[in-house]
Amino acid sequence: MRITDIFEKEKRTFSFEFFPPKNTKAAVQFGINAGQLMKLQPSFVTETCGAGGTTDDKTLDIVDLFTNKLKFTCMPHYTCVNATREKVAYDMRTFVDKNIENVMLLRGDPPEGGPFPENPDGLNYASDLINFVKKHYDHFCIGAAAYPEKHPEAPSMKKDIENLKKKVDEGADFLVTQMFFKNDYYYKFMDKVRKAGIKCRVIPGLLPITDFRQIKRFAEISGAHIPEMLQKKMSDVIDKPDEVYNIGLDYAVQQAHDLLDNDAPGLHFFTLNRSRSAVEIYKSLADNYKDLRERYQESFTPHVP
Ligand SMILES: Cc1cc2nc3c(=O)[nH]c(=O)nc-3n(C[C@H](O)[C@H](O)[C@H](O)COP(=O)(O)OP(=O)(O)OC[C@H]3O[C@@H](n4cnc5c(N)ncnc54)[C@H](O)[C@@H]3O)c2cc1C
User: Fold this and answer.
1) Residue 254, CB half-sphere, CA atoms under 13 Å: how many?
2) How many Å lie between the centroid of ligand 1 and the Cα of residue 165?
3) Which residues does ligand 1 sit against, CB inside 6 Å?
4) Residue 186 lies in a domain
5) pLDDT tens digits, one per residue of 54-72
6) Ligand 1 geometric centre to CA of 234 (Å)
7) Minimum CA distance residue for ligand 1 atom 12
8) What's 198's domain CATH number?
9) Alpha-carbon gap, residue 95 to 101, rounded angstroms
10) What's the pTM value of the predicted model, to 2 decimals?
11) Total domain count for the chain?
12) Whole-angstrom Cα distance, residue 83 to residue 129?
């Protein structure tokens, strides 16, 4: 199903992002955790791809499994790092053949870091990729990325929002945000987004801090700020994983409540292929929100350290 058709039925959506497991052990863990999360009846799920297309085949295998065997709406992420138009056309045709109706179109980052290399075929920004896919494959419902604290390379928020508008004008149907740890960033961003004339849904991305060292690293790379108070609390218990987990969970629960109370159009969980925190957040929200209560079913919360 196209995600925009899901929007017609659901005032807010609850979705999960997974990434392709790297090895057999990770694949078993992924299966157990994804199985638990599917019991929560997500509106849709997404599957990331590696920088520079390094995990393309694995991404497709998992999206194929979710879409055609498990019958969930699943959206692959797709980037244009070093991609020719011919390759993009081939990959989109493969998605069509696999009954995939949604695609998250991104510029991506070079796998070895550093500046984005000049694309051989002029696909230098997500908006170029969206333009190309929309022109040749009107079939797809298209998602794209948004940055409440601005994209790290953008010279200003104003410029970044102008570029965001290009993505929507070229055909992005909805946006999913980068992680943020203070809802004010999202609310202020949304004011600017609406003033810029962007009307589509902008779904907040939620990343519960379950492993402080790891998520601090992610946050630094993506330019997301973790509030000082939260950093201090986490640092004080850094070698006690259960305490770190509980602080991160409480914080994410508060963030989720506040977002839903302020009319966010749902939540997109960056699950890191783990189910425990998302299941516990659902459980805590289920008391307050009927739409989540209907989805939430008792699930166990596996935690494989
Ligand atoms: C929800 C989400 C999911 C993601 N999933 C993945 C994934 O699966 N795999 C992966 O590798 N990466 C993923 N990323 C990371 C993403 O690829 C990087 O953040 C990348 O640096 C930017 O991608 P983009 O699509 O936002 O790029 P763009 O929208 O192209 O923006 C990149 C930069 O260029 C600027 N810009 C855009 N258009 C123009 C223009 N016409 N002229 C000048 N400047 C311009 C923007 O302001 C921004 O600074 C994800 C990010 C998010 C938020």
Assistant:
1) 11
2) 13
3) 48-49, 51, 77, 79, 106-109, 125-127, 145, 151, 153-154, 159-160, 163, 166-167, 176, 178, 205
4) yes
5) 667 899 999 999 999 999 9
6) 29
7) 108
8) 3.20.20.220
9) 8
10) 0.96
11) 1
12) 10
